[in-house]
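Record type: ASSEMBLY
Status: queued
Input:
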Amino acid sequence: MLKKFIDKESGKKVESTVMNAITIDCVIFGFDQGSLEVLLVQHGEGIRKGEWGLPGGWIKETESIDNAAHRLLGELTGLDDIYLEQLKAFGDPERFPLGRVITIGYYALVKREDYNIKAGSTAADAKWYKIADIPNLIYDHNEILQYSLANLRTRIKVTPIGFNLLPEKFTLFELMKLYEEILGVEMDKSNFRRKILHMKLLQQLDEKQKDVSHRAAKLYIFDQAIYEKLTKKGFNFEF
Amino acid sequence: MLKKFIDKESGKKVESTVMNAITIDCVIFGFDQGSLEVLLVQHGEGIRKGEWGLPGGWIKETESIDNAAHRLLGELTGLDDIYLEQLKAFGDPERFPLGRVITIGYYALVKREDYNIKAGSTAADAKWYKIADIPNLIYDHNEILQYSLANLRTRIKVTPIGFNLLPEKFTLFELMKLYEEILGVEMDKSNFRRKILHMKLLQQLDEKQKDVSHRAAKLYIFDQAIYEKLTKKGFNFEF
DNA sequence: AAAATAATTGTGATTATTACACTTATTTTC
DNA sequence: GAAAATAAGTGTAATAATCACAATTATTTT
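Status: finished
Output:
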């Protein structure tokens, strides 16, 4: 994977090293049975073989960074049209042991119902980890993960991106559980309902939950059009 | 400024081009007489000579990205200990006409009272521009600037970073004018006072404004300790 | 001393938040 | 098939925050 370069002007060899190499690493969040999870992959080569890390790869000469991130995500998960945002660049000179490699961190939010690892995976092994069970990761991937988690927590208070983690149709209680899990707080059912419904971001469907052993809850969908209207005049999502 | 490389493995020449070259570009915000301003520099070399752009430069092999940004900022303004944060990386393949160069955007908030352009400037010319008067900039610098402005607007609603733009001691009215200018809204003096004082982030001093031709306002300072306490348990800065 | 200017304080109507308790619908158990 | 269990969904009253003004106070200039 590493390339070797010679500086044509100075003539110096830059051995076993890539000058200013750039990679992408992606934190993929999912939500399953009340738990926030992250998709990790097992490294297939090198000294760190068998250790877990964030999925990532190299940026091609002719593609934008965003496109590279989307491509990598598609190769791994078989999904396109995923919610994906750049976090920031991580560039400690020591972060990668074999040379100077700057990585650009992304985070993605996927609906677990859509996700199917077999679809396009090139990774030896990929697995969802609950946030509390994240192992030691290669390089600075724990730092990137923690940063993205902090970012998700502040973003979700200001923007309704949480919907990207839920199925198309969801109950108010599921939505509340998502907020509780990500923010690490307990909320009041009644007050949550009032607040979220008051925002008018949700559309009630004529459908109900199936296969639950108690009174079935009404299903809702997220109204994109109203969201965009609200975004323009600014709104607040604090709970 | 551009380097030329040969890929040692493939033997291919990569002429007039830097593979994966990385720069830093910095949006430096200041606040002067009620206006939000940005520090731009005039290019001293190349075809774009004379055109304005964001101050920036190359990242050295052995320094972290954050250190590079601080170093560049110090070289230009003579200041260290500036509020500086990474925005994100910009990497459209076409953004730089002579080759693939990815740039990492930063934004800084400086107190104009501290700033002295003569201190360490290497730029041919540097000048503060009001937001409304920003000219056409080189490469994708207008895009970077717009992005940082949007970022500042959302950040300032959630975090009291605005203080970095004001002198050490300021009046409540000055603070309000800062928020009005950045967010582009009008606020009610009375309600603003109540809200900001209620947060307990400000310490009233036994000092007053000098040299004003009317009743002098009390001066306040920002209380860092209380800010950190509040940050831990989370707080909201909406106005 | 009066006028001008802006700081500072006050007020009441409206809306949002919070902590609960209560009612309703559905499924499972006996 | 009635009772128990479970969670959905509604209601309420106290408290706090927001908003749109009006009134008062302290200084400086005329």
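Annotation: The CA atoms of residues 156 and 187 of chain B lie 15 Å apart.
Annotation: Helices of chain B lie at 65-77, 141-156, 172-183, 189-198, 224-233.
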